[in-house]
């Protein structure tokens, strides 16, 4: 008898399943008495194979979520016909966010009060469909992790999303939240991370972490408080939450947050400024992961990309570098650039950009003419406050012997910190210096040496706070003997960070007999600078209407580096032009004419000479170093020894 009734039940279920579902429930789904119970619709089914629904069936399912509750709905459907628009299934959550679906296998949705909806419209698609629901109750007491973020912070707050305890965050103005990419396969589960517009989970729902990640948009609280809570069942998605005060992020049209790991996440990142002309990307490096290298930037039309160590600040104290162009300039001559620290914010002004990152420095170290470009710095340089563990090690390897040409612009050598730089050419050490507080570097004085390997290491004593160091190693394009032009016709301004900087175009003759720099490029390199150190070690391109060449008096290396005394042999008119072109006193904003510069340089280069320009005081008053410096035959920037060149 017992056996018989089991068989009967089995047959009943079997016949139910073979029929197409035709009826739409008239009432909403409510939580059961015992919350450990799962509600299935239409009835229990194996996840991949729900029951078939009849054609032209349409139904709106309502899932009630009383206050203090939340629900997880897992939805599965497939169709026998190819997907067509409009979508047969739509999920509408408690915040009226609509998601259109064309297929789903056990996809999770999370609803908070008051309700969520699922809309099904089968048409003739042969739809198999079903879902299951479980309700949960928020704990009766709200004991959050309390966090603060201030408008003046240079670093945003970063916390893992994998916290069972909710976060309550306050800010000076409003709280802004962005969410980094989740671990692969965990994307949908970000929907379980809910953002509330207020002090606790009874506040209005602002959305989910999924929306932030998916739409690349920050969520902002309407007041000073925001709550983020992970709903049950608890999932660890691997995302990080990045909170900051909204004041400086309000213009961002799109705001993405990425952990470039695995590497392909940041292989190509598109930024779109929309009509606010502003968009941002924050990247996070967790200590176990390598820092990212920016290897290529494509700035559509006009664009400026500022990079901050931490968050964007209005006073720009933590701005570490900036890329700027008019036209679609390939900025590779400054790249690849290694970025360090915990968070970087790439802020784009303009229309759109494509950023290409890698985590693999090997790409730049083997079998490439010059590996790294761009600046070197300690790990947390410019992150706002002195930091521990600033130690860093960097190197450039090249296939040919090149001129390493760099300047140290900042080095905190207090408390026994040291900065060592050494360069070798094959096995010969051509430069080796350790800077300490008792033998500090001459900031901004260029250092040059030839070699095929340069290594820089900064060491601090354990636990010691320092400001770190920064070193600008130049646009180094030496090793490309075939290079004839920089070809930056649309480059209008090269931006100088800080209140002083140097321009070094280091294409040494005779290795680059055909290379020349155009007058437009010279203009771009020197415009809008506060203080200029110019070292254009190359030929200047001959313009179409070649001006009359200068007659240069008998001067040698020392004379040119020191006082350039224009003697009688000089044509007076050319002297005026020279002054006009070369003289950049500290407050003068731009050079406008390089005609004479080109002529003089050409004359000097014909003799194989070398002529660095100290352009901050003017020809007559050029600052003369205590010991005149020359670029010697060994390729080292050192006190002059060669006899004056006669022109
Ligand atoms: C569900 O909870 C109720 C009441 O706490 C309990 O009696 C029942 O055994 C539970 N069922 C399961 C399957 O855990
Ligand atoms: C930020 O906070 C202010 C003051 O509470 C409020 O008026 C404003 O609407 C908030 N901004 C946003 C984007 O919610
Ligand atoms: C940009 O320039 C670099 C170096 O000159 C070159 O390797 C790279 O292919 C260029 N990128 C594009 C897309 O042209
Ligand atoms: C650099 O100089 C220091 C001290 O003079 C020495 O100990 C070190 O071995 C040198 N490094 C190289 C690579 O020659
Ligand atoms: C510059 O040259 C003039 C004329 O030869 C000479 O009188 C003058 O002393 C020189 N000035 C300097 C600073 O060498
Ligand atoms: C420096 O440049 C400013 C602006 O062009 C000018 O007014 C000033 O006289 C210059 N100073 C010197 C010492 O040439």
UniProtKB/TrEMBL annotation:
The UniProt record lists the CUB-like domain at: 22-139
Cite the DUF7592 domain residue spans from the record: 151-231
Pfam families cross-referenced by the UniProt entry: CUB_2, DUF7591, DUF7592
Keyword annotations for this protein, in alphabetical order, are: Signal
Q: Which superkingdom heads the taxonomic lineage of this protein's source?
A: Eukaryota
InterPro entries linked to this entry: CUB-like_dom, DUF7591, DUF7592
Occurrences of domain DUF7591 (ranges): 247-358
Please state the span of the N-terminal signal peptide per the UniProt entry: 1-18
In Swiss-Prot or TrEMBL terms, this protein is called Uncharacterized protein
Give the species. Answer: Caenorhabditis briggsae
């Amino acid at each position: 008898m017992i056996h018989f009734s089991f068989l009967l039940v089995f047959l009943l279920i079997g016949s139910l399943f073979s029929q197409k579902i035709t009826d739409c429930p008239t009432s909403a789904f409510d939580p059961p008495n015992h919350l450990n119970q799962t509600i299935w619709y239409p009835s229990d089914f194996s996840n991949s194979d729900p029951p078939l629904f009849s054609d032209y069936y349409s139904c709106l399912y309502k899932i009630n979520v009383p206050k203090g509750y939340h629900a997880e709905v897992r939805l599965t459907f497939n169709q026998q016909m190819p997907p067509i628009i409009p979508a047969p299934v739509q999920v509408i959550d408690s915040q009226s966010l609509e998601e259109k679906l064309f297929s789903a296998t056990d996809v999770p949705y999370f609803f908070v009060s008051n309700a969520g909806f699922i809309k099904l419209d089968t048409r003739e698609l042969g739809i198999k469909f079903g879902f299951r629901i479980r309700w949960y109750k928020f704990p009766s007491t709200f004991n959050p992790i309390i966090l603060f973020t201030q408008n003046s912070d240079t670093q945003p707050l970063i916390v893992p999303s994998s916290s069972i305890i909710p976060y309550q965050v306050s800010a000076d103005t409003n709280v802004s939240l962005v969410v980094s990419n989740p671990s692969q396969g965990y994307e949908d589960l970000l929907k379980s991370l809910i953002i509330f517009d207020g002090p606790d989970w009874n506040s209005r729902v602002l959305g989910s972490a999924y929306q932030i990640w998916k739409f690349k948009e920050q969520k902002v609280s309407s007041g000073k408080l925001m709550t983020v809570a992970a709903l049950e069942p608890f999932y660890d998605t691997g995302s990080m939450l990045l909170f900051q005060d909204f004041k400086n992020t309000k213009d961002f049209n799109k705001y993405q947050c990425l952990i470039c790991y695995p590497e392909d996440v940041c292989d190509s990142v598109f930024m779109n400024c929309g009509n606010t002309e502003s968009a941002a990307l924050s990247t996070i490096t967790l200590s176990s992961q390598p820092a990212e290298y920016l290897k290529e930037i494509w700035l559509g039309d006009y664009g400026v990309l500022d990079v901050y160590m931490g968050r964007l600040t209005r006073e720009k104290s933590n701005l570490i570098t900036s890329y700027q162009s008019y036209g679609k300039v390939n900025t590779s001559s400054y790249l690849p650039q290694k970025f360090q620290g915990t968070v970087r914010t790439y802020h784009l002004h303009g229309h759109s950009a494509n950023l290409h990152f890698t985590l693999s420095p090997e790409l730049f170290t083997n079998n490439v003419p010059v590996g790294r470009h761009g600046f070197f710095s300690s790990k947390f340089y410019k992150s706002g406050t002195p930091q521990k563990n600033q130690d860093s090690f960097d190197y450039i390897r090249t296939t040919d012997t090149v001129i390493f040409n760099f300047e140290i612009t900042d080095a905190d050598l207090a408390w026994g910190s040291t900065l060592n730089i050494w360069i070798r050419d094959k096995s010969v050490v051509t430069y080796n210096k350790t800077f300490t507080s008792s033998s500090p570097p001459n900031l901004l004085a260029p250092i040059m040496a030839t070699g095929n390997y340069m290594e820089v290491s900064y060491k601090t004593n354990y636990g010691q706070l320092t400001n770190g160091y920064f070193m600008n190693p130049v646009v180094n394009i030496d090793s490309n003997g075939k290079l004839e032009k920089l070809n930056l016709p649309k480059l209008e301004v090269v931006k100088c960070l800080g209140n002083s900087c140097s321009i070094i175009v280091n294409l040494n003759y005779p290795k680059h007999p055909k290379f020349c720099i155009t007058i437009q490029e010279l203009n771009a390199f020197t415009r809008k600078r506060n203080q200029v150190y110019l070292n254009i070690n190359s030929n200047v391109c001959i313009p179409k209407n070649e001006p009359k060449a200068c007659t240069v008096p008998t001067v040698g290396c020392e004379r040119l580096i020191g006082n350039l005394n224009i003697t009688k042999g000089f044509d007076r008119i050319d002297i005026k032009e020279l002054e006009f072109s070369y003289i950049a006193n500290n407050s003068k904003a731009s050079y406008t004419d390089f005609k004479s510069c080109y002529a003089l340089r050409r004359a000097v280069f014909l003799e194989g000479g070398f002529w660095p320009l100290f352009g901050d005081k003017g020809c007559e008053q050029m600052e003369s170093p205590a010991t005149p410096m020359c670029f010697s035959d060994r390729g080292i920037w050192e006190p002059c020894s060669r006899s004056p060149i006669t022109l």
